[in-house]
Structures are given as C-alpha cells and as structure tokens.
Amino acid sequence: MTKYYLLVIPIAIGIIAGGFLAFYPEPEKNPTKLTPSTLIENGSPILGNSNAPITILEWGDYQCTFCYKFHKDTLNVINEDFIKTGKVKLVFKDFPLNGPDSVLAGEASFCARDQGKYWEYHDELYKNWGGERTGWVTRESLDIFASTVGLDLQTFNECLDEHKYQNKVNALYEFGREIGIDATPSFLVFNDEKIIKIRGNQPLEVFLKTIDEL
Fold first, then answer.
1. Where on the tree of life does the source sit, at the highest rank (predicted)?
2. Which residues pair with 52 in a beta bridge?
3. Which residue of 133, 156, 199, 204 has the lowest C-beta tally within 10 Å?
4. Could you give the number of structural domains in the chain?
C-alpha cells in the first residue's frame, strides 16, 4: 500500500481555494509514516461502506462551534450524496481542544460504541450542542443523551465511571498533534494515492472540489 509522509507542522506542496487545503505526501525526510489504514485505525466505527474509495477523516471536538456547524449543515449533504451512495466513508477522531468536558464527551461516545450506537450518540451530542466551555457536558446530560438513543444506563455509567476510554481519547489528541492537526474541525480526505487536508468548517464547495480531485 502507498505510504504517506506528513510533517508535524504541515508545509503544503499545493494550495487551492484560499490556502486551507494542503496536499500530501510531503517530503520524505519526515519520520512519521502514515497509510490509509493507520489513519483510520482507533477512530470511530466507519460511517458508510468500508470499501468506499475515498475517506474523510474528521478531527473534532464535541464543544467546538464550527464542528457543530459542519455537522448541522455540510455533513448532511455529504452523507446523502456521497456516504449513502458508497462513494465516501467517514471516520471521526476526537481532538478535545476544549478541555476535560470534551474528553468526557469523547469517552461517552466510545461507551455508546460498546452498545453498538456510536453514531447515534455522536449525533445526539451535536444535536444538543450548547456552546464552548459552557458546562452543558455533564454526567447528567450524558445520561439523558444515552437514554434518548436507547442505551443501557447501568452499562453506560459503569464505562464512564471507570474512564474506560479516557486514555484512548487523549491518545487520539496526541496522535493528531503529531501529524499536524491544530484546529477543529480539521479533515484529512484521502484515497490510496493522495491526502488532502481541509482546515476549518469550509463551505460545501470545498469538500465537493476535494472529492472531485481525488
């Protein structure tokens, strides 16, 4: 499989659409080697057909304003036109810039995954988004979201009480930093030949152009 090399601080070798798209692979002197499989592993369950030729890897924070806006608007179109049609698959990785509450929300999403409802819980978190660092992420609110999507609360709370996935969420953050992620949302859109980075909640047209490029 083709290997990709990403700098810790990305230096774009190609720029389009105003400078927020960076093309990879980058200079081979960088020791961090990535493949599509290593980018996907340890993230969320795949949304869409696992054999889709293009992957969107989203780095997000459940308290992030622009992550919320992406999920509220742009993702709906991408889901209907590309994910559900088997052209694109989506993977989410936590990048909790907004502190412990974002880490806890990430932990809760993986506790929901244990019961087969990762994406239902993920969507419920964004549906009930309450701002950045406003205190809306609490054990009480996380339980309410769990009830809404039909989780077994005892099992869910045992998972949160033991912080089963705290190290996993923190490790995702560190991995993101190592490959140059420094803002949410950020996206790595890739196939077997090229990786394109999108930084921020860009207009839908940017994602469409990126998918077309790949």
1. Archaea
2. none
3. 133
4. 1
